[in-house]
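User: Batch of two.

Assistant: Item 1 of 2:
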Amino acid sequence: MDPWNAVTTLSDPSRRALYDYVRRQDHPVGRDEAATATAMSRGLAAFHLDKLVDAGLLSARYAAPAGRPRGRGRAPKVYEATGDGFAVTIPERRYELIADILAEAVAGGEQPATEAATRLSYRRGRDLSAVLPPGQDVVGALADLGFEPRRDPEAVTLHNCPFHALAARHTSLVCGLNHAFLSGLVDGLGATDSAPVPAPRPGRCCVELRSR
């Protein structure tokens, strides 16, 4: 593995999210699972997974899902981390998530598009909660998504915004979608003791979790 090529590859936030997810699993990961776990479309996930294979960070093969009989045609492609893994510290960004949500909302033709995107963002959060490891709590999920959560006496504050550049230019829209996404995630995890609340502060995410 070329370390410089690996760092360059992982500097893309989508590839880093996919790599981190695959590396944490104890089974080969298919494209559908990886896409749902990282809240991106299947096509985009497949593209970035193959880029990770090209960089030597993941290996790929064709295999039927565990516990399922193989059907007709070629088995689906699955991915595993190579070696002992590769770590790099870069603030996580997830601009593709916002772009994918907005594109789907516009393509759906619902009006107004902002409200459609907000509903879709909430559903993405709930869908993500369904594929997290059993027993995963909200703070752990937020850490895996790159929000850098920290427990304060009165709240869980988020010290990284995965949508930083977009939020700086389109604050109301992006922060609203982020709030909806985190609300869906929290509700999907059944975290009845926490509620995402808009709380914009310089240098932090625009949402924090407070006790209900």
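Item 2 of 2:
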Amino acid sequence: MLVVVLVVAGRLITDGVAGVRAADEDAARWLAARREPWLLEVTRWATYLADLWVVVGAGAVLVAITAWWSRGWWMPAGVVALTAGEAAIYEVSNTLVARPRPAVTRLDPGDPMASFPSGHSAASVCLYGGLAYVLHGIARRRAAGPSSERPAAARRGVTIARWLWLPAAVGAAVLPLVVAFCRTYRGMHYASDVVAGLLLGSCWFLAVSVVVLSRAWRTGSPETAGSPETAGCPETASCPETGTSF
């Protein structure tokens, strides 16, 4: 569904039917004419927040951590689905739309026919949104009475998550906007490209969170598996701690 929506929207924009192509081109020229040396340096480094290898590396670390902490596969599978699924949707829709990049000086390397949607914007939503979601879920787990082989380490993981999930949530809201600005400021995308990328990332993040990641909390964790409140309790919505999503 996302591929169809993106391809239809992209074709409407590139063919001029959507009525935003001229505004896109004017905005790209306006930004290119107002580049400042200090901001060019800032945006150069900020772009790495959603660079391919940063996303792959951070995703791999998050998969390893969630697999160790949960002793299950729903959380790591959700992280993989977030990054790999977003990349697949981006590649297909990008290839089918084949919109040329802005006709201004482009400051980063990239395929000249890879403008719509913005993969960096979409990847930043999935990566940092997924990180915040996982930390929030871990932070809500019970730190008392775990039955895992490493209860002390598991409890420390919960404590760390409780300190980090709020900053991660702020980052998940802010960093994709920073990346989107960097990509337009550096001449790599039109404004409609990054809007489409943010839409892609948000929709895919929501879908994976509801369908995959939320199951990690319903099927238990090393922090809840052995607690008195959940002992012998079936995996249903009535079970405390494990039956409630967020």
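Helices lie at 2-14, 21-32, 37-46, 52-70, 74-97, 119-139, 151-185, 191-218.
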